[in-house]
């Protein structure tokens, strides 16, 4: 083995490369991603410790009145045991990875991507990145649609840093901000914020934040003291699907 080639490979020059091809680019939360990782040996033989696939997103964290963008890992899986790839060798590694039901949805500015990494001892680790679209599963879609049927419009969606006080798995929560544009809640609410705390195929634990409109002196005082907001935690199941609009509407009316 050429000493020069080996030295260059440690710097990533002439080293092994990795390229991931996904079966498609748009998925539903809870769906499986199928694909193939294509590995090509470089100009020298190299020892590969691991190949791993990760699902990532970004979220906003506020510190000292400044906003920062952080990256979070949603799920990560190791695809292989250690092996040696020879000079110029080509390897195909099929894989399947499941998108969790509580993965953030790619709405508004939210982005989700798949990263493929290859750990090579004493060398620059090659990586590959692929953006994907994550759509809501059936129950989540029904919940969002039911809120819109009550006269709300989705105004903004953002992933924000959060403590683990609500028992979520990730260092962030995805917040959906709705505003009433028609119907009985227009003029009574400033906005309705929804956060999914825990989700699976048949259940969704939700945190609602009801922000009432200021009406009269008392209302203005409450707004100034931030007493015009109510937080409601509830669980919705598949059995609620036919009465979702009624159930959510009844809940909101208790706080206006």
Task: Describe the structure concisely for a colleague.
With 256 residues, this protein is of the alpha+beta class. 15% of the residues lie in helices and 50% in strands. The strands form three sheets. Strands 2, 4, 5, 6, 8 and 9 form a six-stranded mixed beta sheet that branches. Strands 10-11-12-13-14 form a five-stranded antiparallel beta sheet, with helices on one face. It has a three-stranded antiparallel beta sheet with strand order 1-3-7, with no helix packed on it.
Would you kindly provide a written description of the structure presented here, covering whatever features stand out?
The chain has helices at residues 3-10, 138-149, 216-224, 244-253; strands at residues 17-22, 26-28, 32-40, 46-63, 66-78, 83-85, 90-98, 112-120, 127-135, 152-161, 172-180, 189-199, 203-212, 229-237. A hairpin with an 8-residue loop joins strand 11 and strand 12 (189-199). Helix 2 (138-149) crosses helix 4 (244-253). With 256 residues, it is α+β, with helices and mostly antiparallel strands. Mean pLDDT is 85; it is low at 1-14 and 214-227. It folds into two domains: 3-135, Immunoglobulin-like (Sandwich), CATH 2.60.40; 138-253, no CATH class. The protein contains four helices and 14 strands. Pfam families: Spo0M. InterPro entries: Spore_0_M. This is Sporulation protein SpoOM.
């Amino acid at each position: 083995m050429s000493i020069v080639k080996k030295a260059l490979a440690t710097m990533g020059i002439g080293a092994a490369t990795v390229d991931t091809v996904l079966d498609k680019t748009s998925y539903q939360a809870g769906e499986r991603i199928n694909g193939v990782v294509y590995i090509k040996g470089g100009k020298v033989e190299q020892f590969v410790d691991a190949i791993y696939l990760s699902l990532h997103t970004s979220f906003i964290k506020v510190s000292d009145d400044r906003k920062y963008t952080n990256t979070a890992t949603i799920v990560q899986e190791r695809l292989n045991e250690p092996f040696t790839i020879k000079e110029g060798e080509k390897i195909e590694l099929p894989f399947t990875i499941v998108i969790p039901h509580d993965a953030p949805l790619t709405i508004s500015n939210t982005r989700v991507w798949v990263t493929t990494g290859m750990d090579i001892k004493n060398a620059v680790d090659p990586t590959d990145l692929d953006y994907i679209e994550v759509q809501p599963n059936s129950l989540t879609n029904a919940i969002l649609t039911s809120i819109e049927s009550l006269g709300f419009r989705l105004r903004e969606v953002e992933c924000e840093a959060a403590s683990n006080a609500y028992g979520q798995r990730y260092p962030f929560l995805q917040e959906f901000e709705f505003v009433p544009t028609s119907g009985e809640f227009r003029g009574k609410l400033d906005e309705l914020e929804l956060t999914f705390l825990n989700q699976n195929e048949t259940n969704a634990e939700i945190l609602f934040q009801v922000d009432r409109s200021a009406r009269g002196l008392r209302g203005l005082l409450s707004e100034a003291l931030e007493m015009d907001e109510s937080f409601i935690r509830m669980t919705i199941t598949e059995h609620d699907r036919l009465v979702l609009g009624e159930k959510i509407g009844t809940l909101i009316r208790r706080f206006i």
